[in-house]
Amino acid sequence: MQGRSEGQVVNAETRASVQTIARLIATDRRPAVLANEKGEILIANAPAQRLDLDRAALTEKLDWRMLCKSALRAGSVSVSLPLDGGATEGEVVYLPLGSGAGFLLRLAETDQEATWLRNRSRAATLMRVAHDLRTPIQSLLAAADGLLDSGAASAEDRETARKQLHNAASLTLDHINNVLAVIRGEQSVAGMRPDEDFNVTEELRTLIAMIGPIARARDVELRLRLDPIEDVWAHGPVRFVRALFQNMIDNAAKYGGHDVEICLSARPLAATGEGRDQIAFSLVVSDTGGGLPPEQKTRLLESTGKGETSPTGREGARRASAGLNVLGHALRQLGGTIEVLDRYEEEEDRSPERKVIGTTLRATFTLDAPETREGAADAALTPPVADSRLDGITVLVVEDSPASRDWLRQMLGSAGATVRAAGNGIEGLALLERPDLHSEIDVILTDMTLPYMNGVEFATRVRHTGPAGAAPGWKGPIVGLTAHVGDEIRRACQKAGIARVLEKPIRPVALRKALLEVLGRDDATSSADAPAAAHGEQKSAAGDPLKTAVVTELIAQFGLEGAKSFMRRAHGEAESVLSRLRADGVGPDTARLLHAATGASGLTGLKAVETSLRAMEHDVAEGRTDLSEAMKNLQTSLTQTRQAIDQLEN
To answer: Which residue range or ranges hold the Histidine kinase domain (predicted)?
Structure first.
């Protein structure tokens, strides 16, 4: 065995630790090296030297930094090292070295040991993926039951049920693909995928939408609180965040009684040393299921190796524990902690016989702050609009599409409005329950097709005042947005207290004018009806792939770069639909995807793309499955439109 510096100097503080580790490595018959995060070798034994396990081998054959980051969070991580003649299994173990960190790579000594390690890791991965598959399948079944039972329901109810069914089916297929990839050996047994930037808030919303049908079937009320109420982005292993969120919420929805409250909070942390800024997250799930039995608490805490538990007043209702190991694994990978706390009927009661009425799970973990996100217009740089100003007006926007929600926020904000945004009805209700926001909001703008509860149900619950003022009881005007305006929908909206229903896609100036009118503002009679005169709008030339009127208005509102940003996002959505059609053909979700892309294209002035998409919508509605000619036309439109967007100038 020999030690190597490769630029790394072992100081006195770590020398004793390194010497102890060196003696252990020297007697290990397996190839073993101790290195730092940069891949610089501190110690390598003889078997490792025979395999040329130097810095180049670590950094070129492995994603060494990512492995170290994962080992630092979880303590250890499996690894498959490509070598001549195949791959060798092993693991990377984090070892604290005084004020520094070391990472021990140990490889299997024999083919039999390598096979055992590979199969053990693959079996563990399959167990976790297969367990997580249960929730979307159950959601799929619950959504299907809801759709079958909605024969006498309104069109909006049926559309909501169909949307939930499609979402559950899509998530189920994703999980099945993961299982098949593991079985075929196409997915690394270590489950290593690069960390990425992702919207943590939107991940939580998506999981609540998936679990929503299960909760409804069990008559469970889900409540969501966000702190802050704005979307929070982070950089990290999104798969483990999803697994943690899914198992905490799923367990409460299935076994936690009739009321489940979910609270996600995020706080920025200053960077230490040369690292990134970080964000501390806390997910708290509180239920009324009668308390978690002591043996389940023990199992959960043992599965994480962290956390603490409060004394149990009495054993509560017995609950399934199939997801506890998966939850613990996800939390270990995130380097987080969990608390399991009993909820009591009388919180002030400290007697041994006090009644346990539920459980609170509090998981905490830290992720890096994201890279600077591109593609969204900067609200601070968006030029203000002159027509139909919304100064002094606070709007609550309830919209489940992140792109549409961002567009509405920017568009209304550029007209002077203060915008509070929610991704679904339960989030919107939670905002209205806050006394400061309840009195601040002047008008609600809601999509009518929402997950968990549709727009009509949301509006009905907004108007309702429950016991002790528990529900909002809000009295202001509500405006609905929908792509399916008909007499049935209008009657349902009127009954729910919705002042006006607007059809998608809608021009910004028309939307602002409608909001002013329902608020009874005099300036609703501004020049909003004539945006062409205000902005120098011109008619589109024949053959122009862009709709000049819409593009001119976008540029006037958001500036050139902001307008291009929204147009490129709509263009990308259409490209995504085309790619999916080429790969999978026409499927049960094709019509919805085409409809969404068509709306986004119309909203942002992509005339040629919108025309091609509408033609494809018609073909699908007519039952045609051969869309080769239509896809060719769409590709031509996309190419022409991309060039036109790039050539736009002030």
So the answer is: 128-369
- The CATH topology of domain 2-109 is Beta-Lactamase (3.30.450)
Query: In the numeric block, which tokens belong to residue 96?
Result: 């604290």
Question: Is the CATH number of domain 111-192 1.10.260?
Answer: no
For 67, the token pair is 């492995």
Within 10 angstroms of residue 91's Cβ, the number of other Cβ atoms is 18
Each residue of 453-477: b (16+ CB within 10 Å) or e? bbbbbbbbbbeeeeeeeebbebebb
203-259 pLDDT, tens digit each: 898 888 778 878 888 888 898 999 998 889 999 888 889 889 988 898 888 777 888
Whether 515 shows a pLDDT value over 70: the answer reads yes
Tell whether domain 379-529 is in CATH 2.60.40.10: no
With beta carbons less than 8 A apart as the criterion, state whether 470 and 450 touch: no
Residue type, 235: H
| Calpha distance 531→207 (Å, rounded) | 41
- For the cut 90, the answer to whether the pLDDT of residue 290 exceeds it is no
Buried b (16+ CB within 10 A) or exposed e, 603-615: bbbbbbbbbbbeb
462-501 pLDDT tens trace? 988 654 445 568 889 999 988 667 777 888 888 888 999 9
Does domain 196-368 sit in CATH 3.40.630.30?
no
Amino acid at 223: R
The C-alpha atoms of residue 631 and residue 615 are separated, in whole angstroms, by 10
The pLDDT value given to residue 478: 96
Other beta carbons within 10 Å of 268: 11
Cα 564 from Cα 562, distance rounded (Å) = 5
pLDDT at 381 over 50: no
Alpha-carbon Rg for the chain in angstroms: 28
Separation between Cα atoms, residue 609 and residue 544, nearest integer Å = 11
Q: Where are the alpha helices (DSSP H) in 218-318?
A: 238-255, 294-304
- Is residue 522 classed as helix, strand or coil in its secondary structure? helix
| DSSP conformational letter for 380 | G
Six-digit token string for 558: 């958001």
